[in-house]
Amino acid sequence: MSNFARRTLTAVWIVIFILGGFWLHPISFFFTGLLIIAGAQYEYYQVVRDSEVHPQIAGGIITGIALYSVSTLVAAGFTGQRSYLFLLPLIAIIMVIELYRKQDKPFDSLAHTFFAVIYIAIPLSFFPYAAFSKTGLDSLLPNETAGFSPGIIVGFLLILWANDTGAYITGVSLGRHRLMERISPKKSWEGFFGGGLVAILVAWLLSGWLGVVGKTDWIIIAILITVAGTFGDLVESMFKRSAGVKDTGSIMPGHGGFLDRFDSAFLSFPIVYLFISLFG
Question: Can you tell me the distance from the alpha carbon of 32 to that of 274, in angstroms, rounded to the nearest whole number?
Fold first, then answer.
């Protein structure tokens, strides 16, 4: 099977399970986010361990899951923002545990343990706030959760994947001028602009159906995704290059792992959410 066919088949399953999970129901929305956070953090920690630094895998993943869970409860109105204070003991416990692990580089371990939370869990913890902030696209299954709409997340992911697909096809077909060869030799300016045009087209076509914000806002979101998502992809490429690996995982044939598939979202979604919060 060719790489393009493998990528296409995997992409279909990603859309079914990931997009479907966020869209189906508030409960599936919650668990889909948890899956991505846990999977991406685990892959990050495994790559770091291969470079002879030993982060606290369980502690880091538990902290990421706790952060996302608290964000969901706060966004849905089930608890107040003071609930975030319960994360402080987890942070303290991780630091105390490091005293007893007798690692050669304990602060390297702590740095990577906490960076995965900052890099992965914090950006995705904005997902619940986006889902409970505006009305729009309904979930596929009826639910009694007041104010829940997966429209922003569904639209964001569709535009993000459209940008990735457009950039890949354009880059393979027309790519001549390298975007940042030192970090990612295959990325090109042609792919960047091709992906951006596809993202804008998809945003324009889907804006009326998605609702939540206006058509102009969705087009601006597509531009933000193109720019910030590209930088997010480059940041993950920098991480892989420094660790000497090609992919962070193999759970998604042709796409790598969770970290490879959602790297663009980690940097772009906070920017998109900021835009929607201020201007949407």
Answer: 22
